[in-house]
Design brief:
Chain A: Its main location: membrane. Chain A: InterPro entries: Ion_transpt_RnfA/RsxA, NqrDE/RnfAE, NqrDE/RnfAE_oxidrdctase. Chain A: Keywords: Cell membrane, Electron transport, Membrane, Translocase, Transmembrane, Transmembrane helix, Transport. Chain A: It comes from Lutibacter aestuarii. The complex is a heterodimer. By secondary structure, chain A is mainly α. Chain A has one domain (about 15-185). Chain A has nine helices and no strands. By secondary structure, chain B is an all-alpha fold. Chain B has a two-stranded antiparallel ribbon with strand order 1-2. In chain B, helix 1 (about 1-10) runs parallel beside helix 7 (about 125-155), helix 3 (about 40-60) packs antiparallel against helix 7 and helix 4 crosses helix 5 (about 95-100). Chain B is globular and about 60 Å long. Chain B starts with a helix and ends with a helix. Classes of the chains: A mainly alpha, B mainly alpha.
Chain lengths: ~190, ~200
């Protein structure tokens, strides 16, 4: 039951992008095509899950026993940066086409606040365990994917629309994101 | 004279022409996430300004010592150290703001504005220009966040810097202090900003 609540809360009620404002950069930057946004979502799912697992273990078994909790930010960002580098190397070897599509965006994941944000938020979960933290990361990346892909498909239609000159580009995208966020506000109180 | 001109431009570019929020769209997460009131926006802006200034200074000083292959991780460690300092100082002295900003304080470390300036400017320029660049960009960020915070607070709760100017039970436009309001307010502010900067240039 706990897990179902985590899933619904992370995907709909507290959507990581639309109501918590984490990962806005890729949300606005990589959303002009549905295909690239799917790839980006996959990369985030992968990195976020592994990163949360690694940082959770690091925090639980090294930082807390040693009383080094204040080093949390520094160590977490280092672990994430190293992981991203690893994912980049593995992708280059295993799936060159995917690397071609995502190569530019992978370094961006390091500075994707969603990854670091979820890693930190996962520490504060009620009755936390490793399994719960990982599940939380997966649920949040599904939420990220949902927001990104829906937004990208709206943007594909926007290209055909007749938009006033001053609103073209960033403003209209922000406005669409606002309306999307308004729609997600409707899920408030679901859990 | 030309040198002085350049330095002034170097400082001013961050405020209007290359404003990090309205023009370059950097650091959007804190911009949208903490600006439900003008005070929060100002607090976040100043915290970011401090980290940006310190990291630009340090990066500019040690740039020749860092091998270019590991420069990004090195920059991130420098930035993360200052973020940790800010985190501790805020928790000790301004606990109210610490609680309001919450998760967005450790997230200053992944603000693309800071890493962007370290990589694009401080690692290539001398100390003085890097300081001016950081101050200009940082002030541009502070102004943008405070403006967005002020607009949202005025519309959403009918107050500015906690000073209420409507009666207690007046109907305010609550949407603007909720998440969708952040996107919508920023969209219209960007339009306004584009209009002004096109006119002046």
């Amino acid at each position: 039951m706990d897990y179902i609540i985590i899933l619904i809360a992370a995907v709909f009620v507290n959507n990581i992008v639309l109501s918590q404002f984490l990962g806005i950069c890729p949300f606005l930057g990589v959303s002009n095509k549905v295909s690239t946004s799917v790839g980006m979502s996959g990369a985030v799912l992968f990195v976020m899950t592994i990163a949360t697992m690694a940082t959770y273990l690091l925090h639980q078994y090294i930082l807390v026993p040693a009383g080094l909790d204040y080093l949390r930010t520094i160590t977490f960002i280092l672990v994430i940066a190293a992981l991203v580098q690893m994912v980049e190397i593995i992708l280059k070897k295993v799936s060159p086409p995917l690397y071609q599509a995502l190569g530019v965006f992978l370094p961006l994941i390091t500075t994707n606040c969603a990854v670091l944000g979820v890693a930190i938020l996962a520490l504060g979960l009620e009755g936390g365990s490793l399994l719960k933290a990982v599940f939380f990361a997966v649920a949040n990346s599904i939420g990220f994917a949902l927001a990104l892909i829906v937004f990208a498909s709206i943007r594909e239609y926007l290209e055909l629309a007749n938009i006033p000159k001053g609103m073209k580009g960033v403003p209209i995208n922000l406005l669409v994101a606002g309306l999307l966020s308004l729609a997600f506000l409707g899920f408030t109180g679901l859990v | 004279m030309a040198e002085k001109m350049n330095q002034t431009q170097n400082f001013l570019k961050g405020i209007v022409k290359e404003n990090p929020v309205f023009v370059m769209l950097l650091g959007m997460c804190p911009t949208l996430g903490v600006t439900s009131s003008a005070f929060n926006g100002l607090g976040m802006g100043v915290a970011t300004l401090f980290v940006l200034l310190m990291s630009n200074i340090v990066v500019s000083l040690v740039k020749s010592q860092i091998p270019s292959k590991v420069r990004i991780p090195a920059f991130i460690i420098i930035i993360a150290s200052f973020v940790t300092i800010v985190e501790m100082v805020l928790e000790a002295f301004i606990p109210f703001l610490y609680e309001q900003l919450g998760i967005f304080i450790p997230l200053i470390v992944v603000n693309c504005l800071i890493l962007g300036r370290a990589e694009a400017f401080a690692s290539k320029n001398n100390l003085m220009s890097s300081i001016l660049d950081a101050l200009g960009m940082g002030l541009g960020f502070v102004i943008a966040l405070t403006m967005l915070g002020a607009v949202r607070e005025i519309l959403g709760s009918g107050s500015l810097f906690e000073l209420k100017f409507v009666s207690e039970n007046a109907n305010t436009f609550i949407l603007f202090i909720l998440p969708p309001g952040a996107f919508i307010a920023l969209a219209y502010l960007t339009v306004l900003f584009n209009k002004i900067s096109i006119k002046t240039s």
